[in-house]
Amino acid sequence: MKITIVGTGYVGLVTGACFSEVGHQVLCVDKDERKVNMLRANKMPIYEPGLDEVVARNVAAGRLRFSTSLAEGTEYAEVIFIAVGTPPGVEGQADLSYVEQVVREVAEHMSSYRLLVEKSTVPVNTAEQIKRTVLRYSRKDVAFDVASNPEFLREGTAIEDALQPDRVVVGVESERASQLLRAIYEPIIARGGGVFVEMGIASAELTKHASNSFLAMKISYINAVSRICELAGADVEQVANGMGLDRRIGRQFLKAGVGYGGSCFPKDVDAFVHLADQLGYDFDLLKNVRQINEAQRDHVMQKIRHELWVIQDKTVAILGLAFKPCTDDVREAASLYFVPRLREAGAMLRLWDPVATDNFKALYPDLAYFTDIEACVRDADLVLILTEWSQIADFGLERLRSLMKCPVVVDGRNMFDPKEMRAKGFAYHCVGRP
Ligand code: UGA
Q1: Which end of the chain has fewer CB atoms within 10 angstroms, the N or the C?
Q2: What are 260-295's pLDDT values in tens digits?
Q3: Which domains does the chain have, with CATH numbers?
Q4: Atom 36 in ligand 1: residue holding the nearest Cα
Q5: Does residue 264 have an active-site annotation?
């Protein structure tokens, strides 16, 4: 089938690449000419393991193309996925101006039936606004449908998530839209890619909010439990294992640490609180989820203060700048909390990350960046772990201790065994473990 995807960010590019991988003909449209030129030259604008290969393979096979023209995109396919950004607005609500712009332009150009599919994370009832906008800007005799198809892929494992999803959620209100989306997802479902779930549009829109906020809640829950573990002398990893073996709970997203970051959870929790408020419901539970997440970072900062006493002139090596491993994304990353605070307190910072340093450098150009852990931790008074990169686990504890001025490790990701760390001579502070 022919498909147009508008927006070549994480969601748009991965979705487009994966649709072409299962045999569809895909045109990805982005108004950013620089990005489109990069993609045409097979350079990825984002770091995502495996994405470059999928893109290269499908471009070579003639199934995947890139364009800056939305007129061309509208003409090209009956189904148009809208995957442009919905950044946070001033009060936490999603800013839908990019979505509106795309809808208006598609409406102006369409000359026969089109199905507009919301792929970006949008507030419930956005489909109604899209319909009104199409009716206002299109020729009145052109039929169309709007559908919602929220995306659940994670950065770092995006290809796998897109090709083997647990479920494909689709919100439709016409048989024609349902048939088109079933045909698009048929090859993915046929490969063993989960369940195709059809529902009303508002329900599909809400499923995305409810899922992301639930996962954020799980993380804040275990982080709150980790605080109680510290007070009670219990081990949060053991508690999480004990809980997670109950299939109703599950072990995933029960990893205590410095809290969640990234471009999704912080923004989506805020947007859901705001949306609920507008609809007349005070979502106190989610406000607490947010507070616990912030408090977790403050708590780890306290551990650093406690250990260093005076931060001024201490050398602190930070391992991990990305908001999680296997991505170069630093949006809402824990590093963005710790770096300014430690710098303000007078610490001499040395920063390491295998892929995210360029993105971090764009925000803090004048700090000391290292490409290998060995150089980064040399003569450090304290090592702070913020992202659980495997390179840190593989580095070797003896080697780490021999390089540091003082063997002090504050581990925001619970990567090491506290007993082993103590036995190897480290002062080791982690989260929720004795
Ligand atoms: C998240 C969701 O997991 C995806 O399903 C969703 O499609 C995506 O948002 C989105 O809305 O686009 P992502 O932000 O890429 O995906 O990353 P996650 O793996 O969910 O991790 C988010 C944050 O939570 C990271 O900072 C991670 O370190 C933290 N986390 C995760 C924990 O602190 N503990 C855990 O147990 C799990």
Answers
A1: C
A2: 999 999 999 999 999 999 999 999 999 999 999 999
A3: 2-198 (3.40.50.720), 209-289 (1.10.1040.10), 299-429 (3.40.50.720)
A4: 253
A5: yes
